[in-house]
């Protein structure tokens, strides 16, 4: 039997921080200001990578000490900055003796809304790999350090990756994506790749330039007047392809490899028509002189812009997807009970259970006798905003796998998800329901806990929200 004691609620104004927020015009999401990434610092990382190659026979190939030392350098910086850093040995599909992938997660924001930013850290045997791909590696490292220094409130989650053994066939990234569970793969909203972003005779190329994922990357270079083009040369040739094969949206920047600049491109970007974007591609001359600092700066800043647009908390997820304001109101139950209807007495800071975030939640059923309790609200589902998520803690005295007590999520009375005492575990689990079928429509969403006559099951609900699909 549960007892409910609501603690005295804070005033709505205090909960919302009213009076401290800047005034924002109705319907306008405040623009997150992305920081400048210091290209001098990006180049300092490149210099370190170049020295590492110099101590290891002039290469950072995946199977050599130059690669392992590159991993150690990047890892040390990230750990000092507060990242959760993992070395992932590549145990299948990589060259024999290849070093590990390096994965670094900024441990804030929605773990089910992950934005990945990756670059291969290995070079070819022939040279130190400064443009290919010290450039992408160093730009991501300085972006990661900039994010940690700024430490903004996060909405989505940012995960950086430095891949092993790309030059032998995209092997490190392929191994990583294959090792994920399908739930982990579907938590990745987009993957962004950076391979050769400082080509001396380069162009401004965006992978999948017209896609939704590319929108912030393209918008940043558009704002500099660069008129970016599709990265046709690099299509299917770098680590974004590993993610693409699993249906994960991808984009990224590149400045080009051995293909030649056209006269139209030379006219709009400068440089030499009829010459390779990177004349030192896969050669020993891919050294510190083979870096286009202006291009590297523009790419580094566009990465920061994309991180801020997509993952930093402003109420705008930056996808330009019509999901800028959560259509679910008071989904965390922190601000009284409006606009929830139904058994609103279930909403509060009850003792005996705790909130997922904040102090309040909805505790449906949990009496040990026949009871049904619901909370509901009507929302309009924007087309770009169809992923319903909620956090549920199921607490039961039942045992076994028979469903005696159930929790249902319904849309206009149609059941979209059912859980039961058989799904009970310690703590909250985030659940997701696809509302794609309701895009553009108004729908009554309800959450219902029902118990049979004996042995309690409580369904503790918190943080209901609609996210970009
Ligand atoms: N993965 C690249 C191969 C590559 C070839 N063309 C392009 C253009 C833009 C980016 C990458 C590439 C390599 O590492 O060699
Ligand atoms: Zn490369
Ligand atoms: Zn290469």
TrEMBL record:
Q: What are the boundaries of the signal sequence? A: 1-25
Among InterPro entries, the record links this protein to: M28_fam, M28_SGAP-like, Peptidase_M28
What is the first-listed, main subcellular location in coarse terms?
secreted
Q: Name one GO molecular function term.
A: metalloexopeptidase activity
Q: Main EC class of this protein?
A: hydrolase
The places in or outside the cell where this protein is found are: Secreted
Domain (Peptidase M28): residue spans on this chain: 101-306
According to its record, what are the GO cellular component terms?
extracellular region
Q: Give the multimer and partner information.
A: Monomer.
Q: Which family does it belong to?
A: Belongs to the peptidase M28 family. M28A subfamily.
Name of this chain's protein: Aminopeptidase Y (Arg, Lys, Leu preference)
